[in-house]
Write a structure and sequence with these properties.
Elements: H1 2-10, H2 18-39
């Protein structure tokens, strides 16, 4: 909660914001796709 309040107060997003989560998800999807291709 403190990080959210700080981000709202300063206007600077937390390093682990939604954009970070989206990028991590994209990387995991790509890794899964590559692993599934290697299993074929």
């Amino acid at each position: 909660a403190d990080a959210l309040l700080s981000a709202a107060r300063t206007g600077r997003p937390h390093p682990c914001d939604a954009a970070f989560g989206q990028r991590v998800t994209e990387i995991l999807v790509e890794a899964q796709t590559l692993l599934e291709g290697a299993a074929d």
